[in-house]
Structures are given as C-alpha cells and as structure tokens.
Amino acid sequence: MSLPSMGDWRLGRNQPQYLLRGGLCVSSRPKGWRELMAWRWPRRLVLVAAGLATIAGTVFSTGLVGSTGKDRMSSAAGASSPHPAQHPPPPSPAPPPVRLAGPRSAGGPSSAARSSDSAVAWLSVPRLGLGHVPILDRGLDADGQMLIAPGRAVTHYTLSSPLESSSNAVLYGHDDIQGSVFRFLDRVVRGDELRVQLSGGSTRVYRVTATKVSAATDLSVLKATSAPTLTLFTCFPYLVDDHRFVVVAALDHISEGTVE
User: Fold this and answer.
1) Spatial CB neighbours of 41, under 8 Å, sequence gap ≥ 6
2) Could you tell me whether strands 229-236 and 24-27 are parallel, antiparallel, or unpaired per DSSP bridges?
3) Which end of the chain is more exposed for a tag (fewer CB within 10 A), N or C?
C-alpha cells in the first residue's frame, strides 16, 4: 500500500482534510458561520469607529477654522474702529403745540369751576347786547396751555398786557359752552365800540380796527403792541372750533366812571 503524497493527504469524504503548506499541516475544513461572524464583527466595529473619528475630526476642524475666521474679522473690525460705534439717543417726543384757548382748555367744561375768583374788570359790547360781563385773570397751566375762567365770564390773559396798560390786552370768551358769551363775536365790525370798566372806576373805550379768522395755533394775537390795544377772540366756527375769530380794537378814550 502506498502512502499519500506529502502535499495532499485526504482520509475520506467525511474526514478532515489537511493540506501541507510550508511544512505545516493545516486543516482545510470550511469555517462555520459562528466563527465567520465572530471574526467579521470586530473588524466592522473597528471600521465604524474609524469612520466616526474621521467625521468628528472634519467637523471640529471646520468649526475651528470658521470661528478663527470670525475672530479674525472681529479683530480686523476692532482695529479699523478704535472707538465703538455710538448711536445718538432717540429724540424726545415733541411737546404738543401751544394753542389759543378753546373748549378743551383747563377751566373749560372738563375742569372744576373756581367760584371764589373775583372780577378784575367788566366788558361791554353794545352791538352784541353784552353789558358788564365779568373779566377774570388767567395764565398758563404746567403744560403751557392757556387757562380759562369758568362760567359766563371773559378771560384776561396775564401773559398779555394789563388791561390798563399802553400795549395789547387779550380777552377770550366761549362761543358754544358755559353761557357762550362770545357766541356772536363774528358779528362785530370795524368802528364798533368796546368798553372795559376797570375796578378803579375808570372806563376804557376802544374802537374796532380789524377782524379776522386765524388758526388755533396762531399766537400772534398775544404779541405786544406799541399802542393801547384790546384783542378779543373766541372759537370758530360755531360747534366746530378748529379756528379762532379775532377782533382787534384801538383805544379811543378813557372816561371816569361807568359808561352805559
């Protein structure tokens, strides 16, 4: 019986087969699936870990480069601008425009009446049938708006000239509320007579020289004049009140005592 050759030794179909490789006898039996999977899984895990490490390194390096670029841009901007940008503060809201007295002025229908006030003079307008209407002094409120005497009275503004002075004394009366003392002031015409009886007893008689309609914000009626002047104004038109009707009169003469 002859022995198998040194390079190929097979004992049978169901027996393990051995191959001689380099002087070593190695089994040529196929490996089972368990052995194969046990060998492949560690290798796959190693490959996955290596891939994740590569991705993480790429993201990190990209972020680092990006942040470095931003830092460089910020540094460059800081170098070109030695002082930080300063924005001016927002403008303060403009105060409301000062308006000539009207129905919403303090002392009008929305304000409490001050019945303790006493008249400083009395006004008569013969054309309108007005006689001996009390005149009360008023000034401005905290917001610079003109105050108004309550009730059926005429307001003398102390920011204008005194009633007995040689300049412009300004009087206001309502046209459609609180007695509407100047309801028909627009019927006054040039040449009409106006009378102001002072508390001292004398009466100043004026003659109308001009009438006009002006804007509610036209404060020129308060300007001083070089001659004794009496200016009357009221809201206009009736029940609209977005303008003012103005009457200007020049001193004609002064009488002692009451003039009827």
Assistant:
1) none
2) unpaired
3) N
Position with higher pLDDT, 66 vs 162: 162
Q: What is the token pair recorded at 256? A: 């002692």
Buried b (16+ CB within 10 A) or exposed e, 204-223: bbbebeebeebebebeebbe
Q: At 11, list the tokens.
A: 């004992």
Q: Which long-range contacts (CB under 8 A, 24 or more apart) does 76-83 make?
A: none
Q: Which long-range contacts (CB under 8 A, 24 or more apart) does 147-150 make?
A: 147/101, 147/105, 147/106, 147/107, 148/101, 148/105, 148/106, 148/107, 148/108, 148/111, 148/172, 148/174, 149/107, 149/117, 150/107, 150/108, 150/111, 150/112, 150/113, 150/114, 150/115, 150/178
82/148 Cα distance (integer angstroms): 58
Please, which pLDDT band fits residue 64 given cuts at 50, 70 and 90? very low
Model's pTM, two decimal places?
A: 0.59
Alpha-carbon distance 135 to 123, whole Å?
Answer: 7
Q: Are 196 and 206 in contact, with CB atoms under 8 Å apart?
A: yes
Nearest of 255, 221, 256, 254 to residue 236 by alpha carbon? 221
Distance CA 40, CA 158 (A): 106
Cβ atoms of 197 and 207 closer than 8 Å: no
Collapsing DSSP states into helix, strand and coil, what is residue 205? Answer: strand
| pLDDT interval class at 143 (50, 70, 90) | confident
In angstroms, how far is CA 30 from the centroid of its own chain? Answer: 89
Tracing tokens 């005149």 back to the chain, one arrives at 135
Distance CA 107, CA 151 (A): 9
pLDDT higher than threshold 60 for residue 249: yes
CB 153 within 8 A of CB 181: yes
